[in-house]
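ok trying again, last paste got cut off:
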Amino acid sequence: MRTRIIQGDITTRAVDAIVNAANSGLLGGAGVDGAIHRAAGPELLAACRELRARDLPHGLAAGAAVATPGFRLPARWVIHTVGPNRHAGQTNRALLVSCFSESLRLADSLGARSLAFPAVGGGAYGWAGRQVAEAALDAVNGFAASHPGSELELVEFVLFSPEMEAAFNAVWAQPR
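nice, full thing came through this time. structure:
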């Protein structure tokens, strides 16, 4: 499995699935979440409302992941995951790692060969770029070790800011 770190707009990526840094309500929001909802069109909001009514009446828990179609996006699927909110006292790093791990697992189960992540937990949820990058790297390494037969070939980290891109590049450059 190859990884790539780029600065850009995740809504334009021609990959099988993109990950949405969602809130627990799954009904859109600011940042990446809002951008994905706008680009996917109103069908995404309708699908999320149906998920909430049918399967997630209390919302999606931090660290969990669920998929919807991508609708008007180039990506076939949107995988929604909720990062722990440091500003709300959710400082359990394992939940942050789980966002990446569960998204990788779900992408694999959907048959995705390519997946793009934003900096889940960064930005509004208060995790520093280095912390997000370390959690992402741990999840990717753990997934690769535990799923040797996965057809997932490419994992991209599509980061909005140069600072976040630099944090990911610095973590990935360290020997482990």
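cool. The chain has a mean pLDDT of 96. Residues 93-110 form the longest helix (18 residues).
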